[in-house]
Each structure stands twice: as structure tokens, then as C-alpha cells.
Design brief:
130 residues; single chain; eight-stranded antiparallel beta sheet; alpha+beta
Length: 130
């Protein structure tokens, strides 16, 4: 065996021996750290695909105005406008939010901080703010 191969084998054996010497407690700590990191990254991915809370838009018509409210929870959305309530679903892809209510689909642009989105509904341009 060449000196390089012997050094590599020796180095590999050192690593294996160090791993064998780790106590059960150390393995539990390492496992807990891995679980926390995985949970963090999964939560960030969830947040990138979901909204939460209520967003409101002022609807101004010729002689009247009203407030349209969309409340997001999980992948569900509830719209309330002038006493009427519509329930549906929504999805986010990049900076686009697509809301499906009563068989109709509406797509809008989500702000980078997710505090608002613009959407055209029934020919009206609406800005929903949290």
C-alpha cells in the first residue's frame, strides 16, 4: 500500500473512531439540532406559500363605497363584502396570488413584504392592505 493510501485509511479510521466515541447524549443533541433546522426550513417554505389574517380594499362606486375584506387561513379564503360572504381557496406562485371564489378565479400581484396585493375584480382595480 502506498503512503497516500495508508494516510487516507488512517484518517478514515480516525473519523470512525471519533464517531464511535460520541455518547448517546451527543447523538441526541445532534438529532435535536437537525430536527429544529428542518422544522425552520419547512416553516419558511409554508410561509412562502400562505397568507394569514385579513386584507381590506375600499370599493368606490359612483354614489357609494364599501369595504371588501379577504381573510386567509391555511389555503382557504373568506371574502366579506356588504354583508355577503364567499368562501374559496387561494394559491401563491412567486409574487402572484390566485383566489378562487364561487367558481371564478382572480389573479393579483402580491407585494414583496406581503402586506398588500393588487387585484382586478369585476373590472375594478382593488388594492388589499393588511
Amino acid at each position: 500500500m502506498t503512503e497516500e493510501k495508508q494516510a487516507a485509511v488512517s484518517s478514515t479510521n480516525d473519523v470512525v473512531n471519533r464517531l464511535k466515541k460520541l455518547s448517546k447524549k451527543n447523538w441526541l443533541i445532534i438529532g435535536a439540532i437537525v430536527v429544529v433546522l428542518l422544522g425552520f426550513f419547512m416553516w419558511k417554505d409554508y410561509q412562502n406559500k400562505h397568507l394569514s389574517g385579513s386584507y381590506k380594499a375600499e370599493v368606490n362606486l359612483v354614489l357609494t363605497s364599501a369595504t371588501d375584506t379577504m381573510t386567509f387561513d391555511g389555503d382557504k379564503v373568506t371574502e366579506k363584502n356588504d354583508g355577503a360572504t364567499n368562501k374559496g381557496t387561494y394559491s401563491i406562485k412567486g409574487d402572484q396570488v390566485t383566489v378562487k371564489l364561487d367558481g371564478e378565479s382572480y389573479t393579483g400581484k402580491l407585494s414583496s413584504d406581503r402586506s398588500s396585493f393588487d387585484m382586478n375584480i369585476s373590472g375594478m382595480h382593488l388594492t388589499y392592505k393588511k
